[in-house]
Amino acid sequence: MTPSNLVLDGRSLGIADVVRAARSAGTRLAAAPAALAALRASRDHVDRAIAGGATVYGVNTGFGKLASVRIAPDRLEQLQVNLIRSHAAGVGAPLDPSVVRAVMLLRANVLLRPTSGVRPELVEALIALFNAGIVPRVPEQGSVGASGDLAPLSHIAMVLLGEGEVLAGAGVRPAVAALDDAGLSPYRFAPKEGISFINGTQAQTAMLALMVHDAGVLWRTALAAAAMSLEGLRGTPTPLDERIHAARPHAGQVRAARLMRALVADSAIRESHRDGDPRVQDAYSLRCTPQVLGAVADAIAFAEATAEIELNASTDNPLVFENGDVLSGGNFHGQPVAQALDVLALTLTTLQAIAERRVERLVNPDLSQGLPAFLTADPGLSSGYMMVQITAAALVAESRSLAMPASIGSIPTDANQEDFVPMGMAAAYKARRILDNAVGVVAAELLAGAQAIDLLRPLAPGRGVAELHRRVRAAGVELLGADRPPAPDLERLRLAIAAGALDPAAWIAL
To answer: pTM score, two decimals?
Structure first.
């Protein structure tokens, strides 16, 4: 497998693979021959069941509340097409193209599992669509995540049919025209293939996988920002002592303290106030950073573990097994994913909330240990970074309003057949907004922290913090003299965080 290719087998897809394929237009997919062969054998069981007249849910019956309605053999293909058309009921703005690409990748991978019972040709058609760079227009709203992400997946299936719309620059175009330009033909869904395609958690799981990756980058960057604030506020690194954290060995806490120790190592700022400092302890937002952000790390790890399982899990219905049994169950239910998304939303709200408290300490002359008010050399005439803290507070307030779990908010659907649903996509939208807000708050802390480091010169911070400061300035964020709008600098830092340019993993061995 070359760096630009990703071979799917239904068993070994990882989060890093999803990020690369979703965000790199050069990645091409292929299906492992052994997986295609196993899928062909699985499909033979389905064909024999149909030929033998067995009643199989979703293959020769209606769907949901209509499962008791038997469908005539000559209408089975139309049944699948009708299912896709009727379920393409999404509304709202389109999902980001990278998310749609991730959904297509995940769906191809899961359909390769022999439990899906689809023809290999369906997987190959979806892979061909992905490799052609065609991105279906998938409205972001309309899924409750119960029988899977029915609406989002139906909008992708519509494009395979040669119907629906695809993204084209800032607009859309008919799917049939995009297929024709790529030399692809509309796909004919065989019995079971429509329900197999749209029963699955791949929309919410795609968002979870991408967010888990981004949250990991943000977590390390937030720790670096916290270390810079600790230096800028002339706090003590004593609470980072390895023995303290070994006495309460939560994995995330131990990791957080280790990284912060590396960031502040060899600090001349620390040495300047080692003796004669009347403070016995710093405020919690400085002293308890390893404990708080350590808990954040552990929550992200939980979400990551959930995503890793779901990437290679059979979530369609019914499932086909090696002995020919075709069993109807509930693996399409998105509760595990929705719950992980809610945990991610909650913990990223915590991350930004403690970061905002450090921003406040940096700009507040009553708390900043001698730094000028609002980090400006001419307070009064200049307002400096007064509004930066206010912006951070606004983002935290919004995130708190969004952090209420969606996965406990079931509204029964399908004439009460689907009487408990997880609201996974609602959880995903909220978590994505909270993640974006958290990036903004960490950007605010980096902006203020870098200014504080400059105001303490000629004292130098620890080696790791010094490198972070250099990277902040290299991102185009200059030392603040006379007042200027902070918005462009905040945006530069947001982009740098998202790109991983301020992730200490780039310069510290973790």
So the answer is: 0.95
| Separation between Cα atoms, residue 414 and residue 308, nearest integer Å | 30
The angle formed by the CA atoms of residues 142, 145 and 151, to the nearest 5 degrees, is 40
Residues 186, 230 within the same domain: no
The answer on 215 and 190 residing in a single domain is no
433: left (phi over 0), alpha (psi -120 to 50) or beta: alpha
- What is the C-alpha to C-alpha distance for residues 171 and 196, in angstroms, rounded to an integer? 30
Same domain, 248 and 359: yes
Range of the domain at 499: 207-316+327-506
pLDDT for 320 beyond 90 = yes
Cα–Cα nearest to 223, from 355, 350, 363, 344: 355
pLDDT tens per residue across span 172-218? 999 999 999 999 999 999 999 999 999 999 999 999 999 999 999 99
Domain assignment present for residue 321? The answer is no
C-beta separation of 424 from 408 below 8 A: no
* Domain count within the chain: 2
Tokens 């967010």 belong to which residue?
Answer: 211
Kindly tell me the burial class for residue 472, based on how many C-beta atoms sit within 10 Å of its own C-beta (0-12, 13-18, 19 or more). Answer: buried
Give catalytic residue positions. Answer: 57
- What's residue 279's pLDDT? 66
Instruction: Please indicate, yes or no, whether residues 301 and 191 belong to a single structural domain of this protein.
Output: no
Helix or strand holding residue 5 (H, E): strand 5-8
Q: Which of 200, 217, 241 is the last residue of a domain?
A: 200
Out of 180, 200, 220, pick the residue that ends a domain: 200
In a domain, 322, yes or no: no
Query: pLDDT by residue (tens digit) across 330-353?
Result: 999 999 999 999 999 999 999 999
Tens of pLDDT, residue by residue over 65-124, are: 777 888 888 888 899 999 999 999 999 999 999 999 999 999 999 999 999 999 999 999
